[in-house]
Amino acid sequence: MSTTAILTQPISAEVKADGRLLRADPDLIRLQFAAGGEEGGTLAVPGLLALARDTARLRMALARTILVADTENCSEYWVESRWSGEIVHLSILSARTIDAIDGQDASRIDAVDQLAGYFQADVNAGLVLLSVTGNFPPNFDHQYVGSPVSSFLKLTDEQQAEWEQAGKSERAFSFHNTEIFALPGYFRMDARPQFSQQSTLDGYRLHFSPVDDDNQAASEELTSTSGNQSILFGSQLAPVLRQPLGRIIANAETIGVKLQGPLRDNYATYAKDIANAAKHLVELVDDLGDLEAIERADFKTAPDRIELGDVARRVAGLLALKAADHQIEIAAPDIDQHVHATAEFRRVLQILLNLVNNAIRYSPDGSKVRIDIATLDGTACITVSDQGDGIDDEAKEKVFEKFERLGRSGDGGSGLGLYISRRLANAMDGALVVSNTAEGGACFALTLPAAT
Amino acid sequence: MHDSFGQYDDLLQVAGAYARDSVSLRSDVAAMIFPRAFTPPSEALIADISNKFSQLIADIEREISREGAAVSSALPALLQSGLQRDPALLDFLLARNAEQQLEMRLAKNSDISLSETLPAVLLASADHNIAEAAQTLLAISSLNRRKASLKWRSLPPELLHRLCWRIVSALDTGDKEAERQKVQDLLSSYNENQTAANAARKLTHMLGDEHQADKQSAAKAGLALFVAELADMTLLSQDQIYRLLDLPSISPFAVIQRAAELQAEAAMENIRSLFGFDQLTPRDINLFESGFNSLSIEDAKAAVSMWHSESNLQAGGSV
């Protein structure tokens, strides 16, 4: 609930371009004092100061709501501004009192402010600054637009390496303590990749927010809090979807195998189609849950010492029946072959299940799918190769993109499996790539840090 | 086809109903989680955005060019510079496309004419601030329903400022000083109050709770005021809401309305107004209402917060 009071006489003030208060009505002076400012000093209400500075910078008539809150009261003001004679004229036309902001709203506003950043910069794929918006430092745009990020950003060797790695995997990343030349203090930098219509990396949007000891602690707390938030799809909606899908599959399979009596063959086939379509939906539900999890900023795996031969043999066992349906043989590593890696068992199993599933799906009946393991230059490697048609050179990166089906449909794939697998591999400091075998089939190679 | 499957009729009916629900639910859920990725831009959308881009450039150029040229001479250079990929500009154009689509759908599905909407009623307000904002909204709604071309006055200030200077640098008329002066004149004649977004925001701020029900009805409030009210309640920007409402799935719209604490009946009515589901059966309506009520307001707000964050971090379309 809120109440609005439209003022019979606007509260006005005059401010210099740098935000210094030249003249103000008594009510605004009171607001200035309440916000810790002084008469003739810089505007102390952050929203008013930002509006005044924007007006001076743009030299335009602006209007917006300004939120003024302390621990007890919260008011929203409608403020209009205009630029005239090198002075910003501010007018507060109305005030709306908003009932005390509850904890949730306050934390959302904090989170939004945090995410909105202190200022934003767009850089292209070559890391050249294209534009800067928000509360950027004076002359920052004139000085640096068109220059490489290294001209204004002081990055450590580790940060440079991380950026390079993130660029290869086209993922978002954050640096908690970044230094900007000529600016005091440290900044948190959140970088989000921007993509072109052809899904190629176009550049990054960088969000900078100043970090001090207090808000660094708050920022860490915020991050840990967000980690505890429930995942909307994975934990809440996926079970709701799986239940009806399970019933569809059960009902359709009952019909398909004619458990309740004879049925024309073509209708039994339709029923099997329904069951298969529902199974596909279940897979998609699982993929969507995984996707939601891995795309969260705080997604982490739990690395452990695992044995890749063991994972491979388990996968071969799990998919043996499915392979047998197509007279496909899965050749897993021998029991005495061992390669140890540092990775999360469950996630490696998930990646391998996806790769072998794909190999079965796209291989001709009667062919062979091989799973091989090896240690190469301190890296543990597991490969899945098939005797299918292989993958064209231009599609070798495309297959790892979200929803990419390479024009296929109706084969039960969601276009998410390889995207998720690569993200998982990267999250475990590994990589997932594809090449073609000498015989022409596809060969997916998952590399992971070798365990000592 | 057989008319009946005998002993399988019941099972088939159940399986069929679940399958239809699951397919819809899957689309809706996917649209909720990745609203943008789920709807890649169509050829028509790309053409409309390009058209709107050219309209804007030509409109600004007419104001600042020495010749007042009817055909844009800056456009080729601007296209070459990649201006049409400016994320803020793209977001603005995509939102205007969504706004126009929604405005036309509302005009088609609503029984209430513009003259009966809340802004029309507010024209008679004793407060001139309210009356002026209402007049701005009505004028812009009317232009949108006629698919009028975009004008520079509709741009947000930062974007207008940036576009003007980019156009000046792209013009090659040899009289830069005169053009700069014209840009200064144009910028100083701009008033953010005359944009639809601002006028609608002003009304949501100034109108008291007695107008709450009207503001939360798309048909009664008119599109701009309704969207501004949802934005006020959810902290999403108005342009984000336009784009989310224009998705093929009604799920994001339902979640936004839940987060804005609308009642199920009002939410359904708004969906009818903007999506025009004439064929909705009582079963569909029951499904919607039970789904709407089973989503907690807190979860809806959490989902909306995620969209807000996503938009802040990944602003910019991919057209």
Structural class designation of chain B: mainly alpha
User: What would you call the quaternary organization?
Assistant: heterodimer
What is the CATH H-level superfamily of the largest domain in chain A? Histidine kinase-like ATPase, C-terminal domain
> How do the strands of the widest beta sheet of chain A line up side by side?
7-6-11-10-9-8
User: How many extended strands of chain A?
Assistant: 18
Mean of residue pLDDT of chain A?
78
Please, how many helices of chain A?
12
Main beta sheet strand tally, sense and closure of chain A: 6 strands, antiparallel
| CATH hierarchy, class of the largest domain in chain A | Alpha Beta
Query: Which radius of gyration of chain B do the C-alpha atoms yield?
Result: 22 Å
Mean pLDDT of chain B: 82
Q: What number of domains of chain B? A: 1
Instruction: Indicate how many domains the architecture of chain A comprises.
Output: 4
The gross shape of chain B turns out to be globular
- Record field, number of beta strands of chain B: 0
Describe the structure.
The complex is a heterodimer of chains A (about 450) and B (about 325). By secondary structure, chain A is an alpha+beta fold. In chain A, helix 7 packs antiparallel against helix 8 (about 265-295), helix 8 (about 265-295) runs parallel beside helix 12 (about 415-425) and helix 9 packs across helix 11. Chain A starts with a strand and ends with a strand. Chain A folds into 4 domains: about 1-100, PAS domain (Beta-Lactamase), CATH 3.30.450; about 110-230, 2-Layer Sandwich (Beta-Lactamase); about 230-295; about 305-450, Histidine kinase-like ATPase, C-terminal domain (Heat Shock Protein 90, 2-Layer Sandwich). Chain A has 12 helices and 18 strands. Chain B has one domain. Chain B has helices spanning about 10-35, 45-65, 75-80, 85-110, 120, 130-145, 155-170, 175-190, 195-205, 210-215, 220, 225-235, 240-245, 250-260, 265-275, 280-295, 295-315. The N and C termini of chain B lie far apart (about 45 Å). At the A-B interface, strand 1, strand 3, strand 4, strand 5 and helix 3 of A face helix 1, helix 7, helix 8, helix 9 and helix 17 of B.
